[in-house]
Specification:
about 300 residues, 2 domains, 4-stranded antiparallel β-sheet, 5-stranded antiparallel β-sheet, 19 strands, mainly beta
Length: about 300
């Protein structure tokens, strides 16, 4: 079908300050969009981007009805320069002056749709060339990240600072990568919280289960009374939380705007979940190393 063929679009610039009316694109209903830049030789094409990349049997998802606007590359407020990414700004008109009043395209998970600039160091050579040409990235940036980055990294789970919001699935483990260019400039530290959403089953020998389904957005934040304790706050519920076992108490259910509860054996919660950064666990050491130089820790 026509919708499955990549749409090719010419983009003159990715710097928001350099956009022109012809950079305005209508991507509604497209499965993928191929960007072409002015400096490419005849017959060459730029990167092909998709709204949702199919994986694990999940089908293609077309760009949604409001995907009209501009592709752009920029650093987001509150995050370090290494977190800059290619995003799509939905706008009300083809005029670049409408950029400021627009909004970023979101994924179905509720986070901004994006391709990180550090991903362009290995997987998108013509995007990398365009970013270098516009001086949006530097040769030093490319050299810094090209040996580390994998195309299989997921931007939404690359955390550059405490308080950065990321998607969570309450029926699965939590696995993210912690990036701190100031402390560990050539490393993305894995953080694997295998049992963060688990609950111990009553009257068993520490058997656990995933008692919830649902998804949301969350962020880490230090305890106001002890900065060596890290909590997880649920910013927004995307897919409603449902309890799959009868013995979970009301105060143990994740709720929007609140800290994630800590489970005790009988399904009740007496305190928020926390990670003690002073312990010797791999996760504690990873989080401690990250927060020592995190862009937005304090």
């Amino acid at each position: 079908r026509a919708a499955h063929r990549p749409r090719q679009r010419i983009v003159s610039a990715l710097n928001p300050e350099s956009l022109i009316p012809t950079d305005y694109l209508d991507c509604v209903g497209a499965i993928s969009v191929t960007l072409t830049f002015p400096g490419l030789e005849k017959g060459q094409i730029g990167p092909t981007v998709e709204y949702v990349r199919p994986q694990g049997g999940r089908p293609h998802v077309p760009f949604p009805d409001h995907t009209r606007g501009f592709f752009y590359y920029a650093t987001q407020p509150g995050l370090p320069p290494d977190s800059a990414s290619l995003r799509f700004r939905c706008t009300a008109s083809h005029l670049p002056s409408s950029f400021a009043s627009g909004f970023d395209l979101l994924t179905p998970e509720g986070v901004p749709w994006q391709t990180l600039g550090l991903q362009a160091t290995v997987g998108y050579p013509r995007l990398r060339r365009q970013l270098l040409q516009e001086k949006l990235i530097t040769p030093e940036f490319v050299a810094k990240w090209e040996k580390l980055v994998s195309r299989r990294m997921f931007p939404a789970r690359m955390l550059f600072g405490v308080h950065q919001v990321f998607p969570v699935n309450f029926a699965k483990e939590l696995h993210v990568h912690l990036v701190c260019p100031h402390v560990c400039p050539h490393e993305a530290i894995p953080l694997h919280l295998q049992s963060i959403f688990d609950a111990k089953i009553p009257r068993t020998n520490n058997l656990a289960c995933h008692p919830f389904t649902g998804s949301g957005l969350a962020h880490f934040e230090p305890s106001p009374t002890d900065p060596q304790l890290m909590h997880l706050r649920i910013d927004r519920i995307i897919e409603p939380v449902r309890v799959s076992v009868p013995w979970i108490a009301e105060n143990a259910v994740p709720r929007e705007g609140e800290l994630l509860p800590q489970f005790v054996r009988d399904g009740r919660s007496t305190s928020p979940w926390s990670l003690d950064l002073l312990t010797g666990s791999r996760n504690a050491m990873a989080m401690r190393k990250w927060t020592e130089g995190s862009w937005s820790y304090f």
